[in-house]
Amino acid sequence: MVNGYESITGQINLEFKKPDKVEDLYFDFFADYYGELEANLTGSRKITDNLWTNLMINASTQTSFNWGINPLTGKFNMHDRNHDHFMDMPLSKTLNAFNRWLYVSPSKRVQSRTGIKFLTDEELGGQSPLCHIADVYFITNIGNLDYNVYNKTGIAVGDKHDQSIGIINSYTYHLLNSYFGSPGTYKLYDGIQNSFSSNIIFNSYVSNSNHQYSTGLSFSCDNYNTIFKDNMPTNYTPYTSINRVEIVPGIFGQYTYIYLEKLTFIVGLREDYNSKYGLLFTQRTNIKYSVTKKIVLRASAGCGYRAPNVLADNIGLMASTRKFYVATIDDLQIEKAWNYGGNATIYIPLENNEKITMSFEYFHTNFINQAIVDEDRDPNSVYFYNLKGKSYADIGQTDISFSPFRGFDVYTAFRYNLNLITLNDGYQNYLVEKPLVSKYKGLLNLGYATKFRKWVFDFTAQINGPSRIPSAAGYTTKANESPAFPVYFFQITKNTKRFDMYLGIENILDYRQPNPIINPQDPFVKGFDASETWGPIMGRKIYAGVRLRIGRLY
User: Fold this and answer.
1) Where are the beta strands (DSSP E) in 275-354?
2) Residue 12 placed within a domain
């Protein structure tokens, strides 16, 4: 509840290296067979007894270097191993920087965290003179520029332990430029997003710490300005502005009951007013119950909302000659869904203080409204409209992990996924599986580490189940499915106190999706589609890297 109403299936908490608990200097460099280079650099410094800072930088590039020669041109392959005249992997340049500051004053009972993020990313794909000779080339170019500044300040108030006021402010600017095609024949989608959010949170308890509560006010403003144009002869769509402004004040409250570290019960409510979508009431409940020390049960239920950005979310579809019917996008309503399910975790003790950990979970998500992206009505079109029937997802997963002997770890998992949506042609509903979503996935990870983890060996096997491929002949035709396929990984790492080296291989058996592009020989006529990717395209990848730590160690 505290973080807003966009929590349909929960939220992921990302933890970054903290300014006061990180090496003085850390460096990581990575390179692979296909010419991808990546470097990570983090550094920290204590400014005063109350102030720390750290800087994290990530830079990567995907170059055109490749060992192979294209037999059609006699030139470097440019990652075109299947010789369809399209690069299997786009060229890219990425720079990501994150500067964090931490201020702690026990005497003033204040703690403040400030962050500044910067991201620039550009990807260039499609055809290239290095793997294809032609008068006109189909190019895909996607560029992103992102800035974010935030501050989180907590102030202890009153005489109660852990009673505080939190103030969180954040501003984000995002610029997107994208281009698909060639000069004179192309799709274009550009956009600018400006977002600001502010929360004031009061945390305290009633009587004792078994009865905790949080309450507060929130405010957010999102301003999206985007344009779309399709200049392909059979699809012509003039410059179309797709703009949206959402101003959302809200109020929220959350109550937590803890009983003897055996039972935790959390219930939260919030009410928001969205200037575009109206009143939004959100509720969520979470329960954790430890039946014994070896059996833990969890359950959750609640609803959430999400404003759809259908073009940005499905930008990959623009690598095709499909016509986008964008006139209906302004009519899309906010997505709403209920999600509920549970988890059971069982610990089985073994000898030598080891144990088997088994986890079983099931979750169901039922959409009350959903923005439908319809690729099936016509193989040369994409339609956008609100849900007119059922849409739901059932996910079941089982995890088992154990260590049969010291240094050797086994982890295995299997997930089943049933994801159904209702498509509509204006007259009739069709309940179908959501396209390009695997029905199941399996994982086996075997890891072995020698004493003090001086050598670490890691092997992973995945099985990816079939997924429905969008129909090329309407809703009623028999669905085509991708095959199930395995992928294997292996890595060996040599660790020392300050220097590590690692060597690995991904997709050991070199599995690749055959013919991932439909009609690649004619990318400017109807029927061309490079968006229906369900498996690996690059194949086997060998990589190596080093890690270096200088100064303090954590």
Assistant:
1) 278-292, 295-306, 323-324, 335-349
2) no
CA angle 529-533-539, nearest 5°?
Answer: 125
- Whichever domain contains 528, its CATH number is 2.40.170.20
Residue 330's CB is within 10 A of a number of other CB atoms, namely: 12
Encoded tokens for 384: 């956008």
Taking a C-beta distance cutoff of 8 angstroms, is the pair 381, 322 a contact?
Answer: yes
Cβ atoms within 10 Å, residue 80: 24
- Name residues whose C-beta falls within 8 Å of residue 371's C-beta, 6 or more positions apart in sequence: 308, 310, 332, 333, 335, 384, 385, 386, 387
Cβ-based burial of 52 (10 A; exposed 0-12, middle 13-18, buried ≥19): buried
Distance CA 471, CA 378 (A): 8
Beta bridge partners of 8: 10
CA angle 67, 68, 71 (to 5 degrees): 160
- Per-residue burial over 447-457, b if 16 or more Cβ lie within 10 Å, else e, is bebeeeeeebe
- pLDDT of 76 > 70? The answer is no
Model confidence at 160, in pLDDT bands (50, 70, 90)? confident
Tokens of 9: 């299936």
Instruction: Return d(Cα 336, Cα 307) in angstroms, integer.
Output: 9
pLDDT over threshold 90, residue 2: no
- pLDDT confidence tier of residue 10, bands split at 50, 70 and 90: low
CB atoms within 10 A of CB 525: 12
The answer to whether position 544 is within a domain reads yes
Which residues constitute the domain of residue 341?
A: 25-550
DSSP output for 122-136: EEEEE--TTT---SS
Q: Does 8 fall in a domain?
A: no
Q: Give the per-residue pLDDT at 20.
A: 83
| Structural domain count, the chain | 1
Q: Is residue 466 part of a domain?
A: yes
Phi, psi of 352 (to 5 degrees): 60, 35
* First and final C-alpha spacing in the chain: 34
Please answer whether residues 492 and 511 qualify as being in contact, where contact means their C-beta atoms are separated by less than 8 angstroms.
no
Note whether 241 and 225 are within 8 A (CB): yes
pLDDT, tens only, 359-377: 999 999 999 999 999 999 9
- Regarding beta strands 237-259 and 263-274, do their DSSP bridges make them parallel or antiparallel, or are they unpaired? antiparallel
Q: 94 near 61, Cβ under 8 Å?
A: yes
Retrieve residue 383's tokens: 């339609």
Q: What is the DSSP string of 334-363?
A: PEEEEEEEEEEEEEEE-GGG-EEEEEEEEE
